[in-house]
Amino acid sequence: MTYCVAMRLAEGLVFASDSRTNAGFDQISTFRKMHTFRQAGERELVLLSAGNLATSQSVISLLERRAGTDAPNVLGTSSMFETAELVGQTIREVIQRDNPDGKISNVDFSCSLILGGQIQGEQPRLFNIYPEGNFIEATEETPFFQIGESKYGKPILDRVVSYSTPLDRAYQCALISFDSTMKSNLSVGMPLDVAIYRRDNLQPCFTERVDESSPYFHDLRQQWHEGLRGLFNQLTPPALGPG
Amino acid sequence: MTYCVAMRLAEGLVFASDSRTNAGFDQISTFRKMHTFRQAGERELVLLSAGNLATSQSVISLLERRAGTDAPNVLGTSSMFETAELVGQTIREVIQRDNPDGKISNVDFSCSLILGGQIQGEQPRLFNIYPEGNFIEATEETPFFQIGESKYGKPILDRVVSYSTPLDRAYQCALISFDSTMKSNLSVGMPLDVAIYRRDNLQPCFTERVDESSPYFHDLRQQWHEGLRGLFNQLTPPALGPG
């Protein structure tokens, strides 16, 4: 599996993804699930992928190969909306290539993508692109999207993240969301890729690769774990009647 | 969906279940998912159910109808292990009745059960019974089982619950686990049924129905939510480099 989360906030965009890929428990590898497309001063795009690795790699490869050519491509679109349409079409193209008759198979060819970024003249935007190629856009009321193994890490996002959350706090929350997920599910694993885009910057995101040796993440995990247990123990437990 | 959790701890057993059943979003009802079978001084059994409601209701009905008769029944077994076998057989019997040829269908006939309790002469025991009728038993290393919509509420259990957790703290943790689940997933809903069994008591569990008006749960949710946000804000956020 995979876990990716992205947020569209007043100050900009936050992206985070794990890097564990597994085809069965005995076939585990590390693959980057975060990809960027950029033209400094003009556009900065980030794609996160989950699902079938063959499909998502092909989608990324096709988007990269076509970038800057005469074909419709992610560096030639005039809006984020158009970019999301293009990415959705590319998903459909790859799935059509690999499973042309749409046969029901033991293999799930589907992949989900999150696309975020900014193109000059627009606000930063964030899209959740489904395996069918259609998509939804984040709003102020719903400022984050998750793909992959998303349930373990959702409660803390629901509690903490709103459109007005500052970028550094949003990054902190994403790390805690990953910590909860990795504690409960083996199929999501380090290292993590993080990208932070500051609104209207139109320059490369701040990026970071977080692994076991990252002192900040190490301390955060420990403080969060101990803090949670402390908070838990400090609340009054329920009274148990007879029985 | 459904969410149920049960724990086997040094002091005894804790059970909790929600009561929301849905067949589509426009068909939501409240059904109790916790059922008890008892003979005071001799045995106390609790069953939690998730999955197809027709299947789980039939399983419970058959177990109830046969209880105390000459047929193999949950009041006549000589061990919790034998009781788990009997419940597993009853699941197979009902699924065989409703889908005799094992046809692949749009309907998922399966149900999962958690069985816990104590029979005189044995320790308290806890079983997770799969739709196929086979089962696993909780150990000191793995003191809790969840069925249904289990992922949202798993991180807090992983962090807090161990075999030595006192019953009242375990109950508190179960409530927080439900709170996280209900905040993130509409298909799990109040009221909650809780049962606490104290080891070697062999008398009816302490039971409670927790709903929106329960002052303890109301305060716990609020204190936990505010405490979590306070803890979050008190930790140092990560430094963001240029970008």
Automatic annotation (TrEMBL), chains A, B:
Gene Ontology CC terms, in alphabetical order: proteasome core complex
One annotated GO molecular function: peptidase activity
One of the protein's GO biological processes: proteolysis involved in protein catabolic process
Cross-referenced InterPro entries: Ntn_hydrolases_N (IPR029055), Proteasome_sua/b (IPR001353), UCP009120_prtse (IPR016545)
Keywords: Hydrolase, Protease, Proteasome
Pfam families named among the record's database cross-references: Proteasome (PF00227)
UniProt key word Disulfide bond: no
SUPFAM superfamilies, A to Z: N-terminal nucleophile aminohydrolases (Ntn hydrolases)
UniProt name for this protein: Putative proteasome-type protease
Species annotation: Marinobacter oulmenensis
